[in-house]
Fold:
Amino acid sequence: MADKTLDTLFHDGLRDIYYAERKILKALPKMARAAQSEKLRAAFEKHRDETEGQVERLTQVFESIGKPARGKTCPAIDGIIEEGEEILDEFKGAPALDAGLVAAAQAVEHYEMARYRTLSAWAKQLGNDEAMKLLEQTLAEETATDEALTSMAGATITAAGQQAKAA
Ligand code: FE
Ligand code: FE
Ligand code: FE
Structure:
């Protein structure tokens, strides 16, 4: 176990988020199709395109440590996405669907932000500036996405509440 150093942890973490990003890439189009609000749909579509770039950035980070880009099952993202799919199924066509989709998407972004924050700190510690910059670029996109979702959350909650009163 003495050989398990920060490099090992960094490589493991990269594999985790690489797996997660590829799962997210598949989940976002489903969320976009389900969204009732045009703004929310557009936000999911935009982030799907960004996510493609994030996967590409991760392959560059793998290259920077001389490892092949390979994922490792992340049970956390599997669970978060499964919860999102439950919302898709259970709230299909319901007034509260968009509010649920925003919540599901924010859980994804928060997981990503936690991972990228840690990975960029580890890259810095390891003296891998190239990796640090790439990871920080993605962190900035995840943070901006989270903020965009927050700005939409209010309207979706109001919509869900008003329709509930009218019902
Ligand atoms: Fe991402
Ligand atoms: Fe994970
Ligand atoms: Fe994201």
The two ends are 61 Å apart (CA to CA).
